[in-house]
Write a structure and sequence with these properties.
- This protein has two domains: 152 residues, Rossmann fold, CATH 3.40.50; 72 residues, Alpha-Beta Plaits, CATH 3.30.70.260.
- It is 26% helix and 22% strand.
- The protein has six helices and 14 strands.
- The strands form three sheets. The protein has a seven-stranded mixed sheet, with helices on both faces.
- The longest helix has 15 residues.
- The protein is globular.
Amino acid sequence: MPATPPLAPTTQELEKQQAAAAAVRWVRDGMVLGLGTGTTSAQFITQLGARVQAGLKVQGTATSLASEALARQVGIPLLEPRRGLRFDLAVDGADELDDQLRLIKGGGGALLREKTIETAADYLLVIADSSKVVPVLGRFPLPLEVVPFALPWVLDAVAALGGAPALRMDKANPAAPVYSDQRNFLVDCHFGQIPDAESLAVRLKTIPGIVEHGLFIGLAKAAVVIQGGVAQVLKPGQAARPASEFTDLP
């Protein structure tokens, strides 16, 4: 039988590749990078690996075991966490972002490591396909990383905030919960809309047992989003500009 031809990439997959390519163009020799998690970040890591194979000198730390494995596979030198380690640039995707570059992240379960590394970065660049831009955060369920012992009380507290929390279960085994790389539970909160993300972030931080929440506020310096087939740079409160206008980080 003749081999089945590979499926053509979807528009969303092409947009992820395009956003990653714009970000890779701004990586410079000698940079220390934070490597994000998720399908768009995987595109960035893969394309970065090709540049490393061509002679680019960079080092990085990955935000998840999956991204670490991919980075090793494509030849990106990795650094272990240590005191004083800072990142010139972190590149990561988002599950949602608004016009102030407030983000919901953690759909891939790596929110704790992502926030740790991206807080230690001088510049966080978000890369995203066109579906990720929203007028108000909250349609995508807000992830939490939760200590297993504290789960019942966390669920009660988040429900009282209107979050309709649900323990994330394994799609392959619906009777088993999903664990983070730190062996904590992941809880998805269905707020519908989050009109005051800053206030909610503060309230979630006060609930014992929540290790981290997926609201990333005040961290992203810029985002590359594909709009109308063109890579556009978004910055908080500014009009979009074509990524091609920027030789260096916007």
